[in-house]
Amino acid sequence: MVALFIDLFGTDAFDVAIEFGVAPYAFFPSTAMGLSLFLHLPKLDQMVSCEYRDLPEPVQIPGCIPVRGIDLLDPVQDRKKDAYKWVLHNAKRYMMAKGIVVNSFKELEGGALEALLKEEPGKPRVYPVGPLIQTSSSSDVERSDCLKWLDGQPCDSVLYISFGSGGTLSSAQLNELAMGLELSEQRFIWVVRSPNDQPNATYFDSHGHKDPLGFLPERFLERTKDTGFVVPSWAPQAQI
C-alpha cells in the first residue's frame, strides 16, 4: 500500500496513514467552491468573532464570488453547535493531506479551481477529476425493493418525495406530509429521514441513528401500503 484515500469527513484516518508511512489523500465529492470554503474555514474562524450570518459584508472565499454569511452551508451557521465544530475539525486536518481529489472540472468552476491549484506553503495539492458519475447500477440497486415496486405501477403515476441530504423536517412537518399523502390517495415513493425540531436542523445533526419509520403516524404504513412505498433514509434516486 502506498496511499490511503479518505472520504469527506474521515480525516481522523490520516493519523493511521502517517503512522504506517502511507501517503494520506482525501476525496472531496462535492464542488470546488465547497472545497475552497473548507480550506479557508480555519482562517475564517480565526478572523471572525461573530456568527457568519451576522457579518455586514459578504464572505470572500478564494477564487469564488463573495457569499453572504447567511448563505453558507447550514452546518457552519451556528458556531456553538457540534456540527460546526465537526466541520472545522475536519477542515483543519485537510492540511495534513498530500493531495485532495475533487469532483469538479475547470470548465464548470474555473475561478475556484484556479485558486485551489495555486501552490502555497502547507497547502495540499488539488486534483480536479470530475465529473464523476455512476455509469452502471450495482447489484444492490438492481435488487432494490422500491425499484421493483415502481416497475409495477402505471406509467407517470408515482410522486417521488425526497428532500436530499440537507433536507430535514420537524416532527410536525413529517406528520403533516404523511397525512397529506394519505388523504391524496396519490401513488408515491417517500424517502423518510428522522425528524429534527431544531430551527436550523440539517442532515449533519439530524437524529440519523434512529429508525425514521418510527416517527410516522401510527399505522400509516399499513393504511398506505396499496398506494405508497416508504424508504428509510436513502433511495437510489438516479435509478428512480
TrEMBL record:
Coiled-coil spans in chain: none
MF-aspect GO terms: glycosyltransferase activity
The keyword Glycosyltransferase belongs to this UniProt entry's keyword annotation: yes
Alphabetized UniProt keyword annotations: Glycosyltransferase, Transferase
Hydrolase in keyword set: no
Listed PANTHER family: GLYCOSYLTRANSFERASE, UDP-GLYCOSYLTRANSFERASE 72E1
UniProt-recorded name of the protein: Hydroquinone glucosyltransferase-like
